[in-house]
Amino acid sequence: MHNIIAIFKKELRSYFNSPIAYIFLVVFLVIANWLFFGSFFLNGQVTLRPFFSLIPWIFLIILPALTMRLWSDEKKGGGMELLLTLPIRDSEAVFGKFKAACAILCITLFLTAPTALTVVFLGNIDGGEIIGGYIGAYLLGCSIIALGAFMSSITKNQIVAFLLSVALSFIFLIIGQDYTLAPFSGLIASILNFVSFLPHYQTLSGGLISGGDVVYFIGMIFFFLFLNTKVLESRQYRG
Amino acid sequence: MISIEHLSKKYGLLQALKDVSFSVQDGEVLGFLGPNGAGKSTTMKIITGYTAPTEGSVKVNGLEVWEHPLEVKRQIGYLPESVPLYDDMTVLEYLQFIGSIRIKARSAFNSGSLPLAESLARVVKLCGLANVVRRPIGELSKGYRQRTCLAQAIIHNPDILILDEPTSGLDPNQISEVRDVIREIGREKTVMISTHILQEVQAVCDRVIIINEGRIVAHGTTAELERQSESAQSVYVKMRGLKEKIHQLLLDLPDIHEVRHRDTESADIFGFEVTATGSLDIRERIFRRAVSLDTPILEMRVERVSLEEVFRQLTK
Ligand SMILES: Nc1ncnc2c1ncn2[C@@H]1O[C@H](COP(=O)(O)OP(=O)(O)O)[C@@H](O)[C@H]1O
Ligand SMILES: [Mg+2]
């Protein structure tokens, strides 16, 4: 735990030492508020639905920007050699970095809370929907972060890491949609539907907080972090 | 102690190390000398557990790096050739980050390490970083960057230090400062230092291993290496007589590789350089032959070649 915290702090510091964390925060808050109040003033409707339904697509673009440098940067500067010869496990480095990016996401979501609360007071909104929405958004975000960290570990180039993360996250978002499932038959369709991020997120943000969906996201996160660790370990394969 | 046996490393088709075996004794400063691309960094990356060898074994204090990565890593301080630093951190933040990990890992198994604050103060003093601790690393000169990275390698007071070209890219003053630090540390620690500069080896090392194209081509103390070298057997001899006769006299000796006229003191005094095959000492033979042919020897000495010459020969 000590080592994970050390890596976490180092990573968080470098986020806030560079413009990336601030750009991330500002972009996300501007979009979120625009969606809140846009729907409120234009439609006269007080709802968080447009916000939560757009979140996957906002995440798709901005989270890979947050994760693209996680490993690519270390590879370029030689930091990888230092990090992986420190007396820590590869998995500790992977977790520390992952947690740092999740912390930025967490702070960002937290900063949307005042706006969300305003909407809650103005309207008559189901509390379960909001809590489910936030839980879903956080878990979905962490899954995309884990995927992005993994992509960053396979390339030296940040832009490549970004594009790969966007592409792969996009696939994970759309494979569960009706229009992608149409050509497939029963079993394949239900597998794709299960693997996809979106159906699980939609259940949660619909206010239905089911253990299965939470476990699904945690499983996805561990799966990508596991792959990330394997990529680091691959430097040591004999041959 | 580090013991390396039959180490080989392939990068795809390129064989970077070929059956390398050697050991580094406790308390010794070992120079790992070789031209660029010889395989020095590769060897160090394997010892520090960054990459795995294709074949062979590396044991650090009896533990196979491969099987006990954490136990081995906590005993080692490593300065990679790339001098990895984080430009956005200050020197202090950087040393705190690395120090907190290294010291914690070491103190869990060994009581010989100081708490973080004291360790920081010690390395800042030892590496002369007092003036820059609060500066962002990105603003530092090359010399300070090198010393900051050296400081992270020794912050946990490790038993074993692996330094990959610690003085490369520094100016002469900085080089001698860094060497002073290494010498200071080398008094009690096991140090392995790679370099392609000979003077460095002569300045700080007890023993040298010369590596070329992935193979060890020589090893020994600097004095031993000078003696071992082929041309170290050459003898300078000054005799009185006819130039051609002296030349013939020397050539007729057994096991002679080469006889070369070097200088002429006067019309009948000539200096020659005689090289024997193998590592024979031929001075006595020269003396006996000269006596038997009644040709006086005025001067005779073994020519010492520089380590530079040894290195040039071994790695050409
Ligand atoms: N990661 C790598 N991939 C492929 N080849 C490498 C890699 N690292 C080193 N090499 C090659 O291995 C050889 C030895 O390199 P290195 O150990 O860095 O030499 P040195 O440190 O003595 O200059 C060189 O020919 C180098 O090009
Ligand atoms: Mg090198």
Which helices and strands appear, and what pairs or packs with what?
The complex is a heterodimer of chains A (239) and B (316).
Chain A: H1 2-17, H2 20-43, H3 49-67, H4 69-77, H5 79-83, H6 90-111, H7 113-122, H8 127-153, H9 158-174, H10 178-181, H11 186-195, H12 197-205, H13 211-233
Chain B: E1 2-11, E2 14-24, E3 29-33, H1 40-47, E4 55-60, E5 63-64, H2 69-73, E6 76-79, H3 91-107, H4 116-126, H5 142-154, E7 160-164, H6 172-186, E8 190-195, H7 198-204, E9 207-212, E10 215-220, H8 222-228, E11 235-240, H9 243-251, E12 256-266, E13 269-276, H10 283-292, E14 297-302, H11 307-314
Parallel strand pairs in B: 3-8, 3-9, 6-7, 7-8
Antiparallel strand pairs in B: 1-2, 1-4, 4-5, 9-10, 11-13, 11-14, 12-13
Adenosine-5'-diphosphate is lined by residues 11, 14, 16, 34, 36-42 of chain B.
Structural key phrases:
heterodimer; A: 239 residues; mainly alpha; 0% strand; B: 316 residues; alpha/beta; Rossmann fold; Alpha-Beta Plaits; 2 domains; four-stranded antiparallel beta sheet; 11 helices; 29% strand; binds adenosine-5'-diphosphate
Describe the fold and architecture.
The complex is a heterodimer of chains A (239) and B (316). Chain A has 239 residues and is an all-alpha fold. The longest helix of chain A has 27 residues, at 127-153. Chain A has helices spanning 2-17, 20-43, 49-67, 69-77, 79-83, 90-111, 113-122, 127-153, 158-174, 178-181, 186-195, 197-205, 211-233. Chain A has one domain. Chain B folds into 2 domains: 2-227, Rossmann fold; 233-315, ACT domain (Alpha-Beta Plaits), CATH 3.30.70. Chain B has 11 helices and 14 strands. A 6-stranded mixed β-sheet of chain B has the order 6-7-8-3-9-10, sandwiched between helices. A 4-stranded antiparallel β-sheet of chain B has the order 2-1-4-5. In chain B, a hairpin with a 2-residue loop joins strand 12 and strand 13 (269-276). The chains are: A mainly alpha (239), B alpha/beta (316). The A-B interface holds A 2-3, 6, 9-10, 13-14, 17-18, 77-82, 84-89, 235-239 and B 10, 45, 48-55, 70, 73-74, 76, 78, 80, 82-86, 88-89, 93, 97-98, 100-102, 104-106, 152. Residues 40-41, 81, 164 of chain B line the site of magnesium ion (MG).
